[in-house]
Amino acid sequence: MSLWTSLEPASATVDPGSSTRVRLRLRNTGDVVDEYRFEPVGPIAPWTTVEPPMLRLYPGTTGTVDLTFAPPRTPDATAGPNPYAVRITPTEHPEAVTVPEGNLTITPFTELRAELVPPTVKGRFRGRPKLAIDNLGNTKLTASVSGSDNGDQLAYDLHPGNVQIEPGRAAFVNATLKPRRIIWFGPKEQRPYRLTVQRSGLKPEPVDGTYIQRGFLPRWLATLFGTLLALAVTFALIWFNYKPHVGSLAQEQTVEAGVSSIAPSPSTTPTPPPAPTETPAAAPAADPTTEAAGNGGGGGGGGGATATVTAKPKQDTAATAVNRLAADDPSGRHICYRSYVQGSGWQKPVCDGTMSGTVGKNVPIKAINLAVYGVQGSAANWFHYDSQSTNGQGTWYPNWTAIIADGKDNYIGSTKAADPYIEGFAFNVGSGQSCSSAKVRDHDWGDQWCKGARSDNNALDFVGTLDNTLWLEAFKLTVTP
Fold first, then answer.
1. b/e per residue 228-243 (b: at least 16 CB within 10 A)
2. What are the pLDDT digits (tens) for 257-276?
3. Which stretches of sequence are listed as region Disordered (predicted)?
């Protein structure tokens, strides 16, 4: 071998998120001028840089290069000793590879994130939220979970009560909230509560939520029962207090020659009620602007009644928006869309690259409505949160939508409170190409991506993330020729 190497020092320590430097010294012990290339290898190679990457040495001379280690502050930077190596390949004798090895110790750090899913639950006798705990550190997390509230109004059943979470993984604690007092009648009441994640020797991590307790019977039903009870009491009082007058109508009769004569009793047929003096007004017509006939109409003497019914305005969907664009631009290609945001409901539709959703509010999208024009229809599917995930990712909905024609509404996701939120979604078009960009939780806007028509090897445009700890907050869509 014509090369001597030395690592100074052979073992080093670094904190995640910072960097440290090790010097590699080498000497050309051969008899020819040679040039050496350096390449980091091993599990920490992605965080290692070598300066300079190449070094030329004359026989008997010594040179140095610097190895800089900069592990990120993420769970990927495993705490503890991590071996590393540098492959040195001489140009003149490439088969004579030298691989000096060293050891880098990465210091441990702990970081967690906890949140309630959903943060607000409703119920009459219990509420069932879930506490999601993410281990963002590089060591195993061990913690216990407890619940509390002001006034001791709730009882807490937590499974499991203690969790152990590997770095970069998440665990879910199923919580059952039981009110200590049942509301039989009356309005619903809000009961704030707190679940606390306690790690040994560290400050507790509180997560606040709200349990909305509903009455056992709704207010209208309680009012109805009260009214019926009052009527029953009133009827009973009238029944028992009313004493009808009973008198004898018998009269002494004269008996002649053994023959009795009794006058017949009067008829008891009731008198019919008087006929109404006015003809009742007819039911209003289906057209909300139609008025009933009157003012001199045949039949009655008075003026006719006027009935006006205001119809509920039709909801503005993605299809109505894209059809408005198509009316102004029949030869163009357009896409319109809107988002169902958790806690806010459906937004107004937007079109052709305008943002839908929210930014900076940390609120997920639950459902999406889209419609296209000039691209031979669209089909879509959604990727949603999965509480039973074992690989850190969500789950696809089992089926794609059918191919929805131009100008028609296409829906994915669910607006039900108990159903999961959207992490990402995929869609395609029949002609041209589709383009998209997305904003997911705790991340900036991603780059714009474009895909061809569905006939191009079943091309599809994916928007969002597959990470089970993230969700889709906002997106922009366009279609082009």
1. eeeeeeeeeeeeeeee
2. 333 333 344 333 344 444 34
3. 259-312
Which of 106, 131, 164 is the last residue in one of the domains? 106
Do 85 and 156 reside in the same domain of the chain?
Answer: no
In this prediction the pTM is: 0.42
Residue 441 has φ and ψ, to the nearest 5°, of -55, 135
- CATH number for the domain spanning 136: value is 2.60.40.2310
At position 228, the amino acid (one-letter code) is: L
Strand order across the 449-451 sheet: 356-357, 472-480, 433-440, 449-451
The answer on 100 and 126 residing in a single domain is no
pLDDT digits (tens, 9 = 90+) for 165-180: 999 899 999 999 999 8
Q: Tell me, what's the pLDDT at 473?
A: 96
DSSP, collapsed to helix, strand or coil, labels residue 363 as: coil
Number of domains into which the chain is organized: 3
Is the separation of the CB atoms in 385 and 423 below 8 Å? yes
- β-pairing, 350-351 vs 378-384, is unpaired
Give a yes or no: residue 411 inside a domain: yes
Q: What is the pLDDT of residue 112?
A: 87
**Going by DSSP bridges, is the β-strand pair 112-117/356-357 parallel, antiparallel, or unpaired?**
unpaired
Q: Report if residue 445 sits inside a domain.
A: yes
Last residue of a domain, one of 166, 190, 213: 213
The pLDDT averaged over each successive group of 10 residues in the chain (481 residues) is 86 94 92 92 93 93 94 92 93 88 93 90 88 91 90 89 91 91 79 90 88 75 79 88 54 39 38 41 34 38 45 83 94 96 96 95 96 95 93 93 96 95 94 94 92 77 92 95 85
Show the domain range for 208: 112-213
